[in-house]
Write a structure and sequence with these properties.
Blueprint: H1 22-47, H2 51-77
Helix pairs in contact: 1-2
Length: 89
């Protein structure tokens, strides 16, 4: 299984992810994927030149943001600590 380097933004995450059960690792992977989707949607929005695509790009950013925020809330419920300072940027 690949290292979850992304988890450094979640706070005190041990290098050895074997301390997590499979369900938690899958959730964390889903969270990482949602973050990447949000960043990709933002990049797409920033690159749109066609006025006909602006609404589509806005929808994509908002949908991806909401999915990511939902998963962040679920992470808190599941007891995964999130370092808010590292979410910036």
């Amino acid at each position: 299984m690949k290292k979850l380097a992304f988890l450094s933004f979640l706070g005190d995450i041990p290098e050895d992810n074997s301390v997590y059960d499979q369900e938690t690792v899958e959730f964390i992977n889903t969270l990482q994927q949602a973050r990447e989707e949000w960043l990709a949607a933002q990049n797409f929005f920033n690159s749109v030149n066609d006025p006909d695509l602006v609404d589509y790009a806005i929808y994509g950013v908002e949908a991806a943001r909401r999915k990511y925020m939902y998963l962040i809330k679920r992470a808190k419920v599941l007891g995964i600590k999130i370092n808010a300072d590292s979410l910036e940027g």
